Amino acid sequence: MRKEEVRHIGKVVSVTPKETLVEIVSHSACSACHAAGLCGLSEYTEKAVQVPTDPFSAPQVGDEVEVVLSSSMGMKAVWIAYFVPLLVLLAVTLGLIALGVGEAVSGLCGIGAVALYYLGVWFLRDRLRTEYVFTIRKQ
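Predicted structure:
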């Protein structure tokens, strides 16, 4: 039995000896609705994923492939991107309010702390990139 994975279908945009660029189109939940073209709420976004190129089975530009990431790595990404910043925001804002600092200043400091957190994540992007390795499976 395969361990749980997050899979997306994508199209190969470019291939170099180091990495393969795959474009994934994400559809909103209502994009499958029969009235999606009329209401204007359905949307899709295009995302580009860089995957290390396997020299033995490199796909060709235009191939439809499946991009795979283990679900545990996906949950770790959710923690880094959403839960930790929320905790930072709440801790700083509520901590400063408890110390008697005004609400507006506490809120701004909380937002500043989240901005510093994301700046730290940005500086660690190369390290994080080595931890989050996608793989490609041909369709």
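Summary: The chain has one domain: 5-138.
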